[in-house]
Amino acid sequence: MKNKPLSKLSIFLKGMAMGIADLIPGVSGGTIALISGIYEELINTIENLNFSSLLVLKKEGFSKFYHKINGEFLLPLIIGIGSSIVLFSGIIHYLLTEYPIPVWAFFFGLICSSIVLLLKQNKPNSIKSITLLISGFVLAYSITQITPKGGEVSLTYLFFSSMIAIIAMILPGISGTFIYILLGAYETVIQTSKNSILALINFEWNNFVLIYSRLLVIGLGIVVGLKSFTKILKWLYTKYKQGTLMILIGFMLGTLPKIWPWQKTIIWEVISESKKNGTQTEFITPWNYEGDPQLLTAVVLMIIGFLFLYFLERNSSKETDAT
Q: Among 64-68, 237-241, 315-319, whose mean pLDDT is lowest?
């Protein structure tokens, strides 16, 4: 009984880590869930949230309903994720704008650590496993090379963008935030999240309706996306766990270039009707970076990111052994 509060606190903190990760373009909350040992339970819990759960609430009361939906796990996780998004969205946006190299360096180290740990736990010991690993890498890398789309974001577009983004968020390696960027909805989502509390404090009806209608649509998109995809993911994870993990690890490998701390922006002009003006980034060495590469700071933060996930995984292993 004494371990329960610690267990809930641990789930809450992992939820916060997932929320922070999902705010970073190129980093996935699913990566944190996978490496911290809660991924399978997360998928199973989401898949079990259905209409029959509501019937249990109606017929047998809240206690049975709470047990059926795995509330002991789900509630602290959701609170953790939500707290991160509300509290840190503005901070993350500021850090990415003002200190991009140190932030990307930390998360680069974190993702490298997760890949090493996962490969250690799930060795690609067959041609099939290696093929799936490479396939996941190629797919994820191809997605990261797509040029982001711009334009006005309607509520309908925001709904479908959120559906696609949440599927990416629960896939280790594929960043839901990056999907928002590709679809041109990132600024709308981040500004909506940042202004949600201010819209309540400085209440003004039109602004309140705008912010919270967007929040509602984002939430609906997330729910629909989760329910439509987790059933497939649970089936794959149950029937073909090793193969699924190889693809997921490949996804994580494929997104590493996107979060490399030293990037160069390339502006290209109109070449044909099918290719319009736009920008694209490519990763370069610190020595070819225009400006201060902050090499020492970046290396230190890479090591901190690497060790952070190592100790998180070690703590998770101890908890599992204790139970």
A: 315-319
- CA–CA distances in Å: residue 37 to residues 279, 319, 321: 38, 10, 12
Give the rounded percent of residues in the chain with a pLDDT score beyond 70.
81
In this structure, are residues 111 and 27 in contact, taking their beta carbons and an 8 Å threshold? yes
Token representation of residue 83: 């707290």
Per-residue model confidence (pLDDT) at position 318: 54
Cα torsion 148, 183, 255, 123: sign: negative
| CA–CA distance, 95 with 91 (Å, rounded to integer) | 6
14-18, 23-27, 108-112, range with greatest mean pLDDT: 14-18
Residue 21 token pair:
């990760």
Lowest mean pLDDT among 10-24, 98-112, 127-141, 173-187: 173-187
Across residues 220-246, what is the average pLDDT? 82
Neighbouring C-alpha atoms within 13 Å toward the C-beta of 40: 11
Residue 244 vs residues 18, 44, 131, 189: alpha-carbon distances, Å: 20, 15, 12, 30
pTM of the model: 0.65
